[in-house]
Design brief:
alpha/beta, Rossmann fold, eight-stranded mixed β-sheet, five-stranded parallel β-sheet, disordered C terminus, binds adenosine-5'-diphosphate, binds magnesium ion
Amino acid sequence: MQRIAIVDPSDVTREPLRNLLLGVESVWIDAECTRYDFFPDIVQQNNPDVAIISLDADQSKALQLIQQLSVNYPNMPILAISGRGDGQSILQALRAGAREFLTQPVVLEDMLKALSRLRPDAQEGAGGGVNGLTIAILGSRGGVGCTSIAVNLGCSLAADKNNNVVLLDLDMALGDADVALDLVPTHTLVDVAQNVTRLDMQFLKRSLCVHSTGLSVLPHPVRIEEMYAIHEEHLQRALGLMRAAYTHLVLDLSKSFTPTDLTAMRAADELLLVTQLELTSLRNTVRILMGLESEEGLAEKVKIILNRVGSEEGDIDLAKAEETIGKPIYWQIPNDFKPMMASRNAGEPLIQYAPKCKAQQSIMGLANALSGKTAKSDQDGKKSEKSGGWFSWGRK
Ligand SMILES: Nc1ncnc2c1ncn2[C@@H]1O[C@H](COP(=O)(O)OP(=O)(O)O)[C@@H](O)[C@H]1O
Ligand SMILES: [Mg+2]
């Protein structure tokens, strides 16, 4: 929780600012002040984590105040806000001692990002809430296991109570993450897209289904034709907002390389390309990697996930697969037909339906590895690596 004190003599700008902050769960408004000269006392009494100072009512007074507070309270970051976003105004505020500057009217994502940067623990660890770790899951053919991995990875990440995880079903036409979790959506991506201009955190949160594992889900549109109402910029905005509010975003992509898929791939920090040890899947993996190379920054993010290991009769072994793909296999998920099938049919994720099964253990390991944690069962990992098991620790 960040405790905040605001000073803004103008009701016209102070009220929307307060409303914006009231929608942010991680923020507590300690004090609201309408006069610059009263603000030092307010700060002294409340000792807030962040001071927000609006400049426009009287710029020189406001700058003076920033200067005074930054000297007296060097550990309290100051966020300056002004309708004048020109270089000169920004520079003046920063020189006076403000740590962040936002232009009026303040957009929620920008506010969340700025506040995150002002946290004492900012920039620590992966997906610390500053910028939710965005994991896109891409398949090398239909039925390769993307949705199974997306849903179970999402639930495994959500098992850590420090995480706040959201799954977006971006397989607009044929997605089935809602079925896999037995959720009946009240809202979908379409509602978010249609309200994108007035999208705020409360609306966004209301649009999500929350599963009993703690995973939030934004399902695909109910009617197929609705997918055409969802454009790249809608998704971009929704992702921006979610990145600020969640520690992890899991994106289950379609296999059609649509513009929204591409938007998701661009936004992703990690691109998990799911493949299997068989010809079609491997050939497509090579093709997809070649395709991704045409845009800078995409191919580099790819991690190869080998699914259903142990199910093949064929003669393609791991070394051969890695040689063909030209990239190491990052993670292997065993073939675990029964629990996978049964949990899908039951509409329950593995972590609830069969928490001890091999596939769940492996996906939990993947969740830990992606979060930059040591694996929950490090020992198991080492053991199974020695015996050529399901884990491939530390491989990149
Ligand atoms: N590791 C696995 N072991 C056994 N079956 C699996 C595994 N991963 C996925 N499956 C099965 O494969 C089928 C297709 O998986 P799905 O996740 O829907 O693929 P996609 O989303 O890529 O089309 C499902 O019936 C699922 O139960
Ligand atoms: Mg799917």
